Every structure is written in structure tokens, then in C-alpha cells.
Amino acid sequence: MSEKQVPHMPDVSRRQFVQGSAMAGFAVFLAACGKSGASAAPSAAASAAAPSVAASVAPSASAEPTPKPSTSAELNWANWTYYLDFDPKTKKSPTLDQFKEKYGTTVKYEEIIDDNDLFVGTIKPQLEAGQDTGWDLMCLTDWMAARLIRLGWVEQMDLGNMPNVVANLQDVYKNVTWDPTNDHHVPWQSGMTGLGFDKAKTGDLTSVNEFFDPKYKGKVDYLTEMRDTIGLTMIKLGLDPSKATNADCDAAIVEIKKAKDAGIIRAFKGNEYAEDLKSGNIVLSMAWSGDIVQAQADKPSLAFNVATEGGMLWSDNCLIPKGAKNAYTAQVMIDFCYDPTIAAQVEEAVNYICPVKGAAEVLLAKNPDIANNPLIFPPADVLARLHIFNGLDETTEKYFNDQFATVTGL
Amino acid sequence: MGGFLRRHKRVIPYALLAPGLLWLVFFYVLPGFQMLLTSFWSGTLETGYEFALSNVSNYSDALVKYSAQFGRSILYGGLATLLTFAISYPLAYTIAFRGGRYKNLLLFLVVAPFFTSFLLRTISWKIILGDTGIVLGPLKDTGLLPDEFRLLATPAAVIFGIAYNFLPFMTLPIYVSLEKIDKRLVEAAEDLFATSFGAFRRVTFPLSLPGVFAGSLLTFIPAMGDYVNAQLLGNPDTTMIGNVIQNQFLTQNNYPTASALSFLLMAGILIAVAIYARLLGTDELTAGGV
Question: Are strands A106-110 and A74-78 parallel, antiparallel or unpaired?
């Protein structure tokens, strides 16, 4: 695969942003210091009460849509950089212009999110108090989306307003444990976790068992992302990461520890595993699809596969924060982007995995390089093998993190 | 203004101290106090935190759980300090006594790596020491080293990395104290039939001790808390306490444990320094007047 095939690939990947800005998360902590302790009771109550209240107010997907409100004059959308056909310099986006033409809504699009915790920290007081956050639409990663849904801080959507989403959302994204009714989040862009390897040294690798093969002793990196490393190990053990329990976690940790003690694992890495692959220090790593696309430009012998046993899928998801003023328009906006023509237009500029059915077909005529790139539009059989990690509640998440720390040495 | 200062001479020292003191109060004392409070919290980012003195168990829990990483910090920091000393002393000695007109150039060369970012220098070590890099590659090709030999992702790499990164902190103070030694003292020792090694052992080295002391503190203290070298050059079994603190603060959002660990690290360093000062004798410190 040459550089030419991914013309708009940003210089910095979404994951790198996450990492680089983790430091900024500390600012949230400082901000949170001021009001320690106060929030415990209300949030717990909200999470218990929210689903039932919401269910009784909003009609279900199958019901006839209630009389439609009209779209608002403006919409406030918070997103990550490189996540729309948006030019931050001119503030222009063909997609947003077309939306305005069709619905008369001016979208105030801000590339303001570069860390989940940091961004949510800025709106947490309003969410806790049930007030408008100033945002109508925001895109956050699975685990954070799961947390906000659990806390009842996200508006339920009316799927009756969103026919494109109902028709075009890829099946693999449906029925996640943390949003069983599929109406609190809509995936925006995704990435896959699988095998990143140097095929000049290893040949084609297609099994998660390769990560545990003594043949590659000291030549394998695992990921510091707990959900990815434990997820892939669970797949190796024949367990389902989308339903991960504490017992599954224990089993995975035992397996990882064996590999570590046998000297197979060289290190746990974030994005730096790509450097190790490029320099030849390792020949195989648990890897993110987007990174390998970029690394291939420097070292064409690198390859990415989703293992035949399965791989992990992570997404950033559209959410409507509780109390949003223009919740209806936000749903119209999401649905607008689930029109395959619009999704294709967005994907040409973004190059992450597109969750919209039919977008690849639209792109095929216009930009076949992107449409045929299996790392941007994975074939159906690959998509079917992907798992979205279970939505862990706070206690479980802490358990997983603590267990994982015993193998990473942190 | 000038008149005021002349009339109130006692104000001057305080006025001179004020900027530094304010700096310390705002950027060290206040955050330190906040951190101290944080270390007595329980709870999580999601549910909120609660302060209670009974949470002093944060300290004992953290100490028990991360004793291995604490041990490694002391061991790696200590070994790296010894290594920098072994490299720096001959280097500083040569520059001070044999540098001649190249003295300034040589000193510049010692500091030169500092013009590059710390991170970049550590990453370049990864390239140099890579398994098939410019050092190990040829040695493996000629069969001098087995194929699976590696330097990266080993404890040695972490220690060498720390030693390399903190070398100037050791070299410069030693150089300064050697530079100041009155050469006539050495000549006098030799006139009194001391061998050149004897003169070094009895005159030069004792007079350079303040520099050694300052240098080893400047190296050991940051080395103890360092996490970049262990992160980039180490493996899961070489993590130091700095790595744990970084992970607890930024990944796990476990601020109470991270704060408790930070204070334990501070206490550990203070104790280590106190013992060291005791052993070396505090008089020596001021004698050379570094």
C-alpha cells in the first residue's frame, strides 16, 4: 500500500492525540479538587432513575414518530480534530454547508475534544445539575460513552427521527452491553485492534495465538490499553470481550503473565509499538489499524490483520448531552451524516473506519483507493469478527485496571 | 525609592528574596499542600472524593503494593549515580587540569546534549541500541553476539539511559570544585615527597568532595523520580516508581494513591539524602564553598 492510497491521512493519529493530551487530563483533576465528595449521591441516583424516566417519555423506535419539531437555527457540535471534512482555517465544511442548505441550521462545529476526561470535565457541573451544557452533539469514546449513559447524562434519541441510522448502521455496532436499546449513542468513526507485523520476517499472520508463540520471544509488544490487550487475550481463550467479567479478566491476566514470564512480551506500549516495528526491534505487535496504515508509508513490509478468531473494535460515538437545547436537530444532523453519500464525503477526508453501510459503494466510483482499503472499509466477514469491549462499571473497571497493572508493572 | 531603601536597610534582603519565595509558595508550597490533602482522599473521579484522616492507609497500601518499584527506583537511581560519578570524575579532572585553552570548548561539549530535548535524546538511544541497529547489528552479523541478544528493554538500558541523561549534572559541579583547587597545594604535597597518587588521594580528592556531593544529589534525586528512561528503554519488569505515579495520575485517575506515592518518594529521597550527608559530613560541604 503506498502513501497515495491514503491521501488525507492526518499526520497525527487520533490515538496519539489521546496520549499526548493525557497530561491535560490532570487539569480536570485540579478543577475537580474544589468540590470533592459533593457529587457522589446525585449521580448515583440519576443513573438509577434515568432509564425508566427516559423510557416512559420517549417513544420507542417502532412507534409512529410524534409530530416533528422543526430544526433549530443553530447546533453546537463538539468533536475531535480530523473527524469531519472541516477546514479549521476557513471554518468551512461541505457537509455542514449542505446541512445548512437543507435544514437552515448553522452548525457551530468546534474541534475542541482531545481527551475524553478533559472534555467531560468541562461540562460535568452542568450535567450533574441537569442543565444545558452548551453542546447539542459530542463525540466520545466507547468507555466514556458507556459511563455517561450509565450516569444518565445522555439524552435518549428517537430512532423515528433517524431512518438513515436505522437502515445504514453496520450490524456489528448494535446491541452493545452499555446501550442495549441502541438509542443513546450512534457510532461516528472507529478503529480496529489486531495483529501488526513485519511480513518480511514472519510471513502472513492471522491468529491471536501468534502473540503467545515462543518463536517470537522478546519480539512482541502488547498494548498499554487495558481493553485491547485483555480483549485480544480473551479472544485467544475463546472468551467474548463484549461480555467480559472479572473471572474472564483473571483468566486473561494468567495468560498474559505466562507470556511475560516466558520472555515473549518485550514491552507494553502505546503508539510507540509502531516505532519498534519500523526499527525491527519487534516483528509483531498488538496494533491499531490506523497506525499501521501510516507506518506502511515508511516500511512497506508492515501489515495488519484482524485475527481469524476475532479482533477488537473501538469507536467514538455521537452523544446528545442531557439537557441539550437542540436535541432534535442533533438527531437530524446525525441522521444526515448516515446518508451514504454524505458518509462517503466525510470518509474521504477522515480515513478512519466508517460505520455506515453503502458509503463504500458510493466512494467506489469516485475514489476507489479509499473504498477498497480494508482498513477503512473492512469487508463484511472482518466486521463480523470484531468485538466491542464490555461497558464496565466503575468497580469492575478498577478491578480490571488493578489486575492489568500487575502484568504491566505499573 | 532609593531614599526609602537607604532608610530601611533591613528590608533589602527580603525584597531580594521575595520573587523566589513567591515563586516557591505558588508553585511548590500550595500545590504541595493540595497534594497532601489529595493523598488523604478516598473515592473516584466519577463518584467524587472524600477527605478523611483514616485514609492514611493510602500510604501503607501504596508502600506495600509498590515496594518493588520503590526498590528499583533506589537501585537504578543509585547505580546510575555511581556510573555517572565513574565517568564524570576523570572527565572533569581532565578538563580542569589538562584542558588548557580548550577548557571552554570541552565544557561546552559536556553541556551540548542539553540543547536537544530530553525525550529526543532518549529516543535516539533506542535507535543506536536497536536490536539490529548500528551497534548490535554488526556484532551479531559477525557472530560475536548471539542473535537474541538485546540491550533495549533490559535493566541495563534503563540504568545507562539515566546515567547518560544526567551526566552533566555530575560533571559540572565536580569540575567547579576541582577548578578552584589551588595548584600550589598539590605542588606542596609533592615537595613533601607525596607520590602523585598520594597527593590526589590526600589533597585533590578531599577538596573536590563538595562537588561530588552536589553532583551526586543533582543526579540521584531526579534519577529516583525519572520515568522516561524506564518507559522508553525498559520492559514490564523494570518499571520505576515514577512510572507508577504517572500511570496512577494520568491513566487510572487515581489521584489519592498517586499523591501518596509522590509524598512517599519525597520522604524516601529526604531520608536517603540525610544519610548521605551524615556519612560524607556536612562540614565538607561548606568547606569547599561550592
Answer: parallel
DSSP label of B32: H
Which of B49, B127, B153 lies closest to A37 in CB terms?
Answer: B49
Cβ contacts below 8 Å, chain A against chain B, sum to 103
Burial of A337-357, coded b for 16+ CB within 10 Å and e otherwise, reads bbbbebbbbbbbbbbbbbbbb
Query: Cell 541495563 identifies what position?
Result: B156
Domain count, chain B: 1
At A387, give phi and psi (nearest 5°).
-120, 140
Report the C-alpha dihedral over residues B113, B114, B120, B123, rounded to 10 degrees: 60
Q: Which three cell numbers stand for residue B147?
A: 542473535
Q: CA of B127 to nearest chain A CA: how many angstroms apart? A: 7
Q: How many Å apart are CA A86 and CA B223, to the nearest integer?
A: 45
* Residue A72 contacts residue A330 (beta carbons within 8 Å): no
Would you call B236 and A279 a contact, using CB atoms and an 8 Å cutoff?
Answer: no
**What is the DSSP code string of A216-253?**
GTT-EEEES-HHHHHHHHHHHTT--GGG--HHHHHHHH
B222 touches chain A (CB under 8 A): no
Question: What would the pLDDT profile of A67-93 be if each residue is shown by its tens digit?
Answer: 568 899 999 999 998 899 998 888 899
| Rounded distance between C-alpha atoms, residue A184 and residue A190, angstroms | 17
Q: What is the pLDDT of residues A126-167, one digit of tens each?
A: 998 889 999 999 999 999 999 999 989 999 999 999 999 999
Are A343 and A354 in contact by the 8 Å Cβ rule? The answer is yes
Q: What is the pTM of this model?
A: 0.80
Cα B38 versus chain centre, distance: 26
Question: Under a CB-based contact definition with an 8 Å cutoff, are residues B150 and B233 in contact?
Answer: no
Cβ atoms of B137 and A281 within 8 Å: the answer is no
**The amino acid at A343:** A
CA distance B266 to chain A (A): 19
Task: Determine, for residues B47 and A39 on separate chains, whether the beta-carbon distance falls below 8 Å.
Answer: yes
Nearest CA in chain A to B130: A281
Residue of chain B minimizing CA distance to A282: B131
Distance CA A375, CA A9 (A): 12
Rounded-to-integer distance, Cα A297 and Cα A76, Å: 36
CATH label of the domain that carries residue B144: 1.10.3720.10
> How far from B277 is each of B17, B86, B170, CA to CA, in Å?
26, 20, 17
Question: What residue numbers bound the domain in which B258 lies?
Answer: 68-280
Do the domain assignments include residue B23?
no
Judge whether B67 is closer than 8 Å to chain A, CB to CB.
no
Whole-number Cα distances in Å, A219 to A211, A215, B128: 10, 9, 17
d(CA A404, CA A397): 10
CATH topology classification for A3-190+316-373: D-Maltodextrin-Binding Protein; domain 2 (3.40.190)
In chain B, what is the greatest distance between 2 CA atoms, to the nearest angstrom? Answer: 80
CB nearest B236 (choices: A218, A265, A279): A265
Give me the interface pTM, i.e. the ipTM.
Answer: 0.80
> Any idea what DSSP says for residue A356?
B
- Asked if B250 lies within 8 A of A409 by C-beta distance, the reply is no
**Check whether domain A191-313+396-408 has CATH 3.40.190.10, yes or no:** yes
Could A409 and B236 be called an inter-chain contact, meaning their C-beta atoms sit closer than 8 Å?
yes
pLDDT band at A38, cuts 50/70/90? very low
- C-alpha B109/C-alpha B106 separation (Å) is 5
Are the C-beta atoms of residues A80 and A113 closer than 8 Å to each other? yes
